[in-house]
Amino acid sequence: MLAIQNLEVGYGQSKVLHDLSFNVGGEEILAIMGRNGMGKTTLLKSLIGILQSKSGSIKLDDHEVSKLPTHERVRSGIAYVPQGRMIFPMLTVTENILTGARGKIEDGTWEEIYSLFPILRDMRHRKGGNLSGGQQQQLAIARALVSNPKVLVLDEPTEGIQPSIIKDIARALKDIRQLRKLAIVVTEQVVSFMMDVCDRALVIERGRFVHEARRETLDAEKVKALLSV
Predict the structure, then answer these.
(1) pTM of the entire structure?
(2) The dihedral of CA 162, 163, 168, 172: what is its sign?
(3) Which CATH superfamily, name and number, covers 2-228?
(4) What is the pLDDT of residue 165?
(5) Residue 182: which residues within 8 A CB-CB, separation 6 or more?
(6) pLDDT digit string (tens) for 134-153?
């Protein structure tokens, strides 16, 4: 579903991502692990088009999207849940979700979102700024889903969230994959969350991948060691 080849991204003369290549299957959950400052957010911003790549290819469902602006990448099927959630605090839950839509939201989509995140139904008239961090994260995911993506991209969705809600988010991502039959790319530093949710993991260090394994063969202690260096 998503094929990245020889991707290089930087800020000005400073190169951050170095010749990265990886694929994501149509219904795969791929976790990209790494410490702060290693290139995770830069990678995701380059996939959605917030940052333009210096070179390389980004193919979504066999279509090259690396030269498209962000809104056209969203239209093509990439949805982004940014680090820090970035919801609109003065809009209601319903209004926040509507900002992610590319047209009328069907009744079935609303019901699907509420089945994934029941709290959003209960709080649909509440302002986004009055939600807890975990509730805002669920809202940000719901907002991304209404664009009907082929690939859902999430940047550190567990950041600043209590453990019980982290488990809810892990369960929701697996349910989303099953319901929507889409691919998910998630950056993360919490190894337990990654082991719970992903099919495969990559570890990034200074803009290069240094380790890759499927969940069933992944050495959690080795990943923890790489993240703590």
Answers:
(1) 0.93
(2) positive
(3) P-loop containing nucleotide triphosphate hydrolases (3.40.50.300)
(4) 87
(5) 1, 26, 27, 149, 150, 151, 152, 176
(6) 999 999 999 999 999 999 99
